[in-house]
Structures are given as C-alpha cells and as structure tokens.
Write a structure and sequence with these properties.
The complex is a heterodimer.
Chain A (H helix, E strand, L loop, with lengths): L3 E4 L2 E4 L5 E7 L7 E6 L6 E5 L3 E2 L7 E6 L2 E6 L9 E6 L11 E5 L1
Parallel strand pairs in A: 2-10
Antiparallel strand pairs in A: 1-3, 3-8, 4-5, 4-9, 5-6, 7-8, 9-10
Chain B lengths: L2 E5 L2 E3 L5 E8 L8 E6 L5 E7 L6 E3 L7 E6 L4 E6 L8 E7 L10 E2 L3 E5 L1
Parallel strand pairs in B: 2-11
Antiparallel strand pairs in B: 1-3, 3-8, 4-5, 4-9, 5-6, 7-8, 9-10, 9-11
The chains are: A mainly beta, B mainly beta.
Chain lengths: 107, 119
C-alpha cells in the first residue's frame, strides 16, 4: 500500500501569510494527488486533484505542485476562512490512501 | 446541484451488521465511481472502499476487506456498504463520495456523513 505523509502536522500562521503544506508518497503516484479542506463538524471539500487542477469555485490563492512522490499545497495569502484541516489523498492506485492531515491554526 | 445523502448509521453491538446507503441526485449516477470514506472521532480520513461506475472494479482497504461489501444499484441511484463483523474500531462517521469520472477515485463531492457506533 502507498503511505502518504503530510508535514507539518500543525501549522500556525496569520492572515495574509503564504503557507505551504507538503505531502510525500511512499512510492511514485505520478500526478494523481488530491487535496481537501475540512472544517470541524463538516464533510471534507475537494480543493484540487491531479496535483494542480483546481476544483470549480476554489479561490485561486490555492495552488498545487509536484510529481512522483513529493507534492505541495500552497495558499498564497491566508484568509480567515482558510483555517481548517487539510488532507492529501493519492488517487493513483488502490487503496486510495489519505495523509494524516495538517491542521492550520491562527497564530 | 450534486447531492449525496447517507443513511443507515446507528448503534450496533460488536460482531453485528449494518447496511449503509447513499442516495445520489443532481448528476448521472451511473457515470461516476463512488467511494466510502470514514473518520473516527477526532481522527483523520480513512479511505475504505470504492466502486467504478459500472461496478466492474471494486476496491477495499485491508482494514475492512472480507467484512465490508460495497455495491451500487444504478437504477436506484444508490450506493451501499454492507458492514459485517463490526468491531469497536469501526466506530466512525461514514461518508460517501462521488468521483469525477467513471473510474476516478478522488472525492469530488461528499455527503454529510452517517455515524456508526459499535459498542
């Protein structure tokens, strides 16, 4: 099975900051990587898939990059609505595993 | 508007069974892969099972293989998860999700979740 490891587990930042979350796969997944945002008590929301394809309606301050085993999610200028937990998921091969999550907190 | 509604959760004793359902609307259900994801209390997301649009490809996580069965009825726009031999560690909110294509297992749209408690 492919293991997905996110870093950091927790990230403290301020409104307006540029932040980056990293996701590493234990083996190559080409570009088949998705990112989700989840707020407490809510279902996750897809932000982007295939590494960098932004889902409809997702603000352009979110971007993704990477390939093979290393991927990043970048938020260019944090907004108050962005404080949440973020998950990566590989959608290359079964089981389609998630990372353990990164909690983005207000500094 | 895409809508997914899970049902069937509840309290069950260890060793018991439960069947979850997920009704889809606002899209052509038979055209999309579907997935079950769960989240234990205070924990992260765990992918547990997926089924392609025509159900000729079915996948399971090791944690549920042999105990859970995913299926779909495209005539009823409904996804199912039959859960047998339930354990305390199966306690979680169970989400169904729709992929973006016939055989694509990223989770483009999610239901609101249904809570399963094994105790």
């Amino acid at each position: 099975d492919i293991q997905m490891t996110q870093s950091p587990s927790t990230l403290s930042a301020s409104v307006g900051d540029r932040v980056t979350i990293t996701c590493r796969a234990s083996q190559t997944i080409s570009v088949w990587l998705a990112w989700y945002q989840q707020k407490p008590g809510k279902a996750p929301k897809l932000l982007m898939y295939k590494t960098s394809t932004l889902e409809d309606g997702v603000p352009s301050r979110f971007s993704g990059s990477g390939s093979e085993t290393e991927f990043t999610l970048t938020i260019s200028s944090l907004q108050p609505d962005d404080f949440a937990t973020y998950y990566c998921q590989q959608h290359n091969s079964s089981p389609f595993t998630f990372g353990q999550g990164t909690k983005l907190e207000i500094k | 508007e895409v809508r997914l509604v899970e049902s069937g959760g509840g309290l069950v004793q260890p060793g018991g069974s439960l069947r979850l359902s997920c009704g889809g609307s606002g899209f052509i259900f038979s055209n999309y892969a579907m997935t079950w994801v769960r989240q234990a209390p205070g924990q992260g997301l765990e992918w547990i099972s997926g089924i392609s649009a025509s159900d000729n490809s079915i996948f399971y996580a090791d944690s549920v293989k042999g105990r859970f069965t995913i299926s779909r009825d495209n005539s009823k726009n409904t996804l199912y998860l039959q859960m047998n031999s339930l354990r305390a560690e199966d306690t979680a909110v169970y989400y169904c999700a729709k992929g973006s294509y016939t055989n694509s297992f990223e989770c483009q749209h999610w239901g609101q979740g249904t809570l399963v408690i094994v105790s």
